[in-house]
Amino acid sequence: MAVCIAVIAKENYPLYIRSVPVQNELKFHYTVHTSLDVVEEKISAVGKAMADQRELYLGLLYPTEDYKVYSFLQMFRKLHNSFTDVMCNPFYNPGDTIQSKAFDSMVSAMMVQAS
Fold first, then answer.
1. Is 24 helix (H, G, I), strand (E, B) or coil?
2. Counting Cβ atoms within 10 Å, is residue 92 exposed (0-12), middle (13-18) or buried (19+)?
3. Alpha helical stretches, state H, 47-100
4. Which InterPro entries does this entry report, sorted A to Z (predicted)?
5. How far apart are alpha carbons 83 and 50 in whole angstroms?
6. Are the beta carbons of 27 and 47 closer than 8 angstroms?
7. Residue among 58, 64, 53 nearest 39 (CA)
8. Rounded Cα–Cα distance for residues 18 and 63 (Å)
9. Contact 20, 111 (CB under 8 A)
C-alpha cells in the first residue's frame, strides 16, 4: 500500500505531498528525502545498464520502525507524466505548490492501485 506520494523541487522543498493518514504528512518529509537519496544512488550505480534491462523495481530503499519504503520506477513514470501536464499549464507558476485537481486524482488512483 502506498502511504505517501511526494513531489520534491530541485531545491529540496515539497511541491506536493499526500499521505494516508494526513496527520503523518510531516513524518514522511524526512522519509521521502532519505528515500530519494537512495533512489539516486541506485540509479547512478546501475547507470545505462538499467535503461537497457528495463528494471522497474528498485527494491527496499529505506526501512523505518513503522514502514518499509520500496520503489517502482513505473510509478515514477506515471507521476512524472502527470507532473509534466501540471508544468504545461499556463496558469501554473513553477516552484508553487501543486494544487491541480487532475494531479491529485492521479495520485489518489496510484495510492488505491498500490494498496
1. helix
2. middle
3. 48-53, 73-88
4. Longin-like_dom_sf (IPR011012), Sedlin (IPR006722), TRAPPC2L (IPR044760)
5. 23
6. no
7. 58
8. 19
9. yes
- In the numeric block, which cell numbers belong to residue 84? 509534466
Whole-structure pTM value: 0.73
Q: 50 CB contacts (<8 Å, ≥6 apart)?
A: 43
Q: Show me where the domains of the chain are located.
A: 4-112
Give pLDDT tens digits along the chain (115 positions): 678 888 888 887 889 988 887 888 888 888 888 888 888 887 777 665 555 455 567 788 888 888 888 887 778 888 889 999 999 999 999 999 999 999 999 998 888 665 5
Query: What's 4-112's CATH class?
Result: alpha beta
Grid coordinates of 95: 516552484
Is residue 6 within 8 Å of 18, Cβ to Cβ? yes
Burial class (CB within 10 angstroms; exposed 0-12, middle 13-18, buried 19+) of 107: buried
